[in-house]
Amino acid sequence: MPRIEIDGQSYEVQGGDNLLSACLSLGLDLPYFCWHPAMGSAGACRQCAIIQYKDAEDKRGKLVMACMTPVADAMRISLDAEQARKFRSDNIELLMTNHPHDCPVCEEGGECHLQDMTVMSGHTFRRYRGLKRTHNNQDLGPFINHEMNRCIACYRCVRFYDEYAGGKDLQVLGMHNNVYFGRFEDGALENEFSGNLVEVCPTGVFTDKTFSAHYVRKWDLQSAPSICVHCGLGCNIAPGERYGELRRVINRYNGEINGYFLCDRGRFGYGFVNSPERIRKPQLNGRLDITTDTAESYFRSLLQTGEPTIGIGSPRASLEANFALRTLVGEENFFLGLEDTEHGLLNIIAELMRDGGIHSPSLREVEQADAVLILGEDVTHSAPRLALSLRQAARNASFELAGTLHVLPWQDAAVRNLDKQALTPVFIAGICATRLDDMATNTHYGSPEDIARLGFAIAHGLDQSAPAPAALSDAEQSLALAIAGSLKQAKRPLIVSGTGCASLAVIQAAYNVAKALPSVNKQLVFTAPECNSLGLAIMGGRHLQQAFERVGSGSAGSVIILENDLYRRASAQDVDLFLEAAAHVVVIDSLENKTTEHAELLLPAATFAESEGTLVNNEGRAQRYFPVYPATEPVRGSWQWLTAIIEDSQWQHHDALTTACANAFPDLAAIVQAAPGAGYTVKGCKIPRQPHRYSGRTAMHSNINVNEPAQPSDIETPFAFSMEGDTAHVPPALLPVIWAPGWNSNQAINKFQQEIGGHLHGGDAGVCLIEASGTMPWFSDIPSAFKPEQDQWHIMPLPHIFGTEELSLHSSPIVERLPAFCVLLNPLDSETLEVDSGDQVGICDLSGDLILKAPVQTELTLPRGLIGITAGLPAFQSLQNITQVTLKKVNQEGRL
User: Fold this and answer.
1) 707 domain residue, yes or no
2) Backbone angles phi, psi at 144, to 5 degrees
3) Beta strands per DSSP E along 347-485
4) In terms of residue numbers, what domain contains 503?
5) What are 602-648's pLDDT values in tens digits?
6) Disulfide check for 314: which of 208, 563, 829, 883 has CB 3.0–4.6 Å away?
7) Among residues 633, 596, 784, 769, which one has the least CA distance to residue 712?
8) Distance, first Cα to last Cα, the chain
9) Helix %, strand %, coil % for the chain, to 5?
């Protein structure tokens, strides 16, 4: 490793790095704006100026930009030289001439990178008294505020939005000292990662509009480490609370998973925590509010009827809550609460990850892939943050070419100039067009059967011993061989699949392809639909349909439903019969839904922001989340309601329940390592949830009582509802607040990393439960080619980032971005029905009875014989578990 001299002190640094990254990795302070560790160097702001000396005799040196200068052995530089300090101070003074200096009313105030760097650069007095350039602001939709007058033209926003995230509708307009960063017209930013502009922008140009609705300063937010609950990737988040209300969610860095970025659903979908549809009190028969003691007594009485009680688990409840329910009702009476097809798919995914012998990568590892095949998954909508990682993987060929030309990977503009000369092979086989098609080498659209057949053909092209599909067309055979050829040459090939198209054959085909790959560094990643889908599958349980049969046959009495709206899992008719046949129905949930309407006893559950638990993400990584603020009685964590009922329970505390769960399942044994237990302290103190500048604690409730109330105690976690204690020396899994002296913005994460952009000190949060081993035989159950049937269409539920996930549908900003209510049809099918886009069709069952009416939107890439609907959208709930329908044109009078 090179050794360099900085202001007379010798340091060992990482070879191939730039000087800015090297200095920050050493813990030194050097201001910057345009550089970002995930996006490399642009050299636009000129704020990281330093002095570089030729040799020991050179006393004058030359001014260079640290972000654009590679490290070299024996290099001598100075950060503190007067010439460098004056340049940085003068430079930021010029950058600030047009800035409004509106910190007291700017929502970025107190966590502003511009403020930090201004102070660090020594610019403390404003001399400019001339006119300022001003701009009109734009309405950028429900997520983002726009205040262009604060812009310092660092170009970070467009570099992230356009180049890193693949956005098309945010541009830089103008020239010289009069540039404008915005859309060509007002309108919602279209990219699924637009919310990251809030953290990428070093000033207050882009701020969180959802936070503005109930704004408080950063130092007045109480926070705790948490996990996003809106998909199965397990991105790390930092929620913030004030006055018992969740105010915002921001990214929490995890070097193996989400890094610096979140998707918009994960960032803005938190509104369900504050929803007026929250269940706040125990209720009897949907009308009578009862006390906690009465609810517990009634709950116990229902379990003492002598009839077996069955429990319905949930993929959005923690491992501990599901385990407590399983223990309460017994293993033979525990049902996973998944739609039956999804249940089977998750079981095979868990089996493949455990026994298939192919590594399941983290998102960081995904970004290193040098060839990608996506089978049957619209990743942007089913696992959005994975899609962002795949976009970075698509650029690896240009980085390799840059290396041969001696261009360093952080020299962003130079590398991007090579993007079109060297393309990483990315192949997408999906139901219809996806948001990643723009980076694909080749795309193929087909039914799930046809996607699976292509996958089996690719596997056979890689390894002749793999089963081959019969009767492939010449075009399909040619495509399969071309894909196989590219994958065979790759050193780090990646196969992506999942539950998105509800096809077992597609998942089996994906495994065959991965198994056939010759590379020892091959990887296979499956998406999982909900935050604990894989954890629930590892725990295991019976199918939901079996629960319906048990109750229908009279062999079970009471039913306990844990955080699960069964109307999203099965047809309304089946669920109605099930709930009507049950002798007693107990529902534990946080939000009102169709299932809670049938509860005899309804118990209010805490959300992720008010309780603790363990979730397992799609790669098999167990992670712990902690309450940001205490649940208001009588709201409790689901696990607390259940353990209170278990006779002679030894699990009065969460750590004991976690340990019992780990001991019960060999594959979950390591979950106790996901985070330290409640007894963990730093120098004898619990870890504070509140920043050291937290204000108003003695006056927050003075309108109710002038006496300061005692801080709530927390015996379940290592955290205190307090500002006293240390956050600088805690494990990453317990890091509630990112702050360092002089670094009030999210850029303070530099101080917590082993190296810039790398892993956190002490290792990234979470523990991997599954180590791939062994191998499995080839799958050979290859489906026949799909053939459209005359006057019949197969329903194809298509995931959507803003329409499919249950909890985010209770967040009003997300609701504003819901996809249009319509059905997708191939234009030739539309022509057959004599309908155009916008016309209504009646969707009928095979007996001709009308189910619902919906407008048509033609989709050129959707195969004939399929009808596309938005999965999970409430308007389509009447189509749950229906696979085939007939379509009829609706005339102007509304008749079929």
Assistant:
1) no
2) -125, 130
3) 371-375, 426-430, 442-445
4) 360-521
5) 999 999 999 999 999 999 999 999 999 999 999 999 999 999 999 87
6) 563
7) 633
8) 75
9) 30, 20, 50
